[in-house]
């Protein structure tokens, strides 16, 4: 079963976006789990037309209420295993997180559960960013930055309510914080084209947060060559995460194996179980390559270390 984690700061428009996506049938046979820590309770009817929602209230699943999430997901796994008709089986769970949640500890929590790791693949982390208020939130809130950094997909919501110059600056700021994420726009939950930022637009100068301002995240693309050595890659990756785990925000790679194309991902220090991709899924055009996104290291040093371990020349 696939799990989509939907995050975003308080009031970022997650529910509106999700409702429209569900209505458009974007997620197949899906069960929605909503976590409300600080928000006013959702009207269940908002998410009508799908199974659920399971509402987890009274605590945030990234910290205080993690056990509730594990329990709810285990129940969904059980129900799926007991269903006789494969055509009716649940395909996906969407977890709409509380606006206070950091996606990374949720990933860590699920990966630490022996039952969930066998039944659930975290397929994507989608983070909604309010087009009008995103810059202010990023400037003031470490949490807002952590959410953005954890995303595979960033969705700028409420584009119709935002000043175009602010949206342009926000786009460039998000690119700086998370160069690897796909960026798109939405109005009332429907996808809309993001205008290209005018020439001369600059990302916002985000002020230092308590504990000092972190260096910008940089992506490094590494080639695995034509005949990837899975074990050398594994050793290198765990050594990297042990030594520099706090500085590596995300690793994503696609490795060709005899069993198929394998998707490899980490969020912070957590390595997700590899997932076989459908053959038509050319995610980010990655093939026998990995992208490391992090800060505080020299890109060339990383390439050299990888080359040394795997013997694959990096250009
Ligand atoms: Zn939390």
3D structure, described in words:
This protein has 315 residues and is α/β, with parallel strands linked by helices. The protein is 31% helix and 27% strand. The protein has helices at residues 14-23, 66-82, 103-111, 114-119, 134-140, 142-150, 164-177, 230-244, 299-310, and strands at 2-8, 30-36, 51-57, 92-96, 121-130, 153-157, 182-187, 190-192, 218-223, 248-257, 260-267, 270-271, 275-276, 289-294. An 8-stranded mixed sheet has the order 3-2-4-1-5-6-7-8. It starts with a strand and ends in a 5-residue tail after the last helix. The model is unreliable at 41-45 (pLDDT under 50). Bound molecules: zinc ion. Zinc ion is lined by residues 60, 62-63, 100-101.
* CATH top level assignment of the largest domain: Alpha Beta
CATH architecture of the largest domain: 3-Layer(aba) Sandwich
Strand-pairing-aware structural class: alpha/beta
- Mean pLDDT across all amino acids: 84
Shape: globular
How is this structure best summarized?
It contains nine helices and 14 strands. By secondary structure, it is of the alpha/beta class.
SSE arrangement:
Elements: E1 2-8, H1 14-23, E2 30-36, E3 51-57, H2 66-82, E4 92-96, H3 103-111, H4 114-119, E5 121-130, H5 134-140, H6 142-150, E6 153-157, H7 164-177, E7 182-187, E8 190-192, E9 218-223, H8 230-244, E10 248-257, E11 260-267, E12 270-271, E13 275-276, E14 289-294, H9 299-310
Parallel strand pairs: 1-4, 1-5, 2-3, 2-4, 5-6, 6-7
Antiparallel strand pairs: 7-8, 9-14, 10-11, 10-14, 11-12, 11-13
Helix pairs in contact: 5-6, 8-9
The protein binds zinc ion (ZN).
């Amino acid at each position: 079963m696939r799990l989509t984690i939907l995050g975003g700061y308080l009031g970022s428009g997650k529910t509106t976006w999700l409702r429209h996506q569900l209505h458009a049938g974007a997620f197949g046979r899906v069960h929605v789990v909503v976590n409300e820590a600080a928000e006013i309770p959702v009207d269940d009817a908002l998410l009508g037309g799908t199974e659920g929602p399971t509402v987890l209230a009274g605590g945030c699943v990234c910290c205080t209420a993690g056990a509730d999430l594990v329990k709810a997901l285990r129940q969904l796994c059980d129900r799926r295993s007991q269903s006789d008709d494969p055509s009716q089986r649940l395909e996906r769970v969407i977890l709409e997180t509380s606006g206070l949640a950091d996606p990374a500890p949720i990933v860590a929590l699920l990966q630490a559960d022996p039952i969930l790791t066998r039944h659930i693949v975290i397929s994507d982390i989608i983070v909604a960013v309010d087009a009008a208020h995103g810059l202010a939130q990023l400037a003031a809130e470490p949490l807002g930055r952590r959410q953005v950094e954890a995303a595979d997909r960033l969705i700028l919501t409420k584009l119709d309510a935002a000043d175009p110059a602010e949206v342009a600056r926000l786009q460039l700021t998000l690119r700086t914080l998370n160069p690897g994420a796909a960026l798109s726009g939405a109005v009332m939950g429907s996808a809309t084209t993001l205008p290209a930022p005018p020439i001369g637009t600059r990302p916002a100068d985000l002020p230092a947060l308590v504990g000092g301002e972190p260096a910008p995240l940089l992506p490094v693309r590494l080639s695995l060559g034509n005949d990837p050595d899975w074990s050398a890659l594994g050793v290198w990756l765990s050594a990297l995460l042990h030594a520099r785990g706090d500085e590596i925000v995300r690793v994503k790679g696609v490795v060709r194996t005899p069993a198929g194309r394998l998707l490899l991902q980490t969020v912070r220090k957590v390595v997700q179980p590899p997932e076989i991709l459908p053959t038509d899924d050319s995610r980010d055009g990655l093939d026998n390559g990995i992208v490391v996104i992090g800060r505080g290291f020299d890109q060339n040093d990383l390439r050299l270390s990888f080359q040394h371990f795997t013997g694959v020349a990096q250009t």
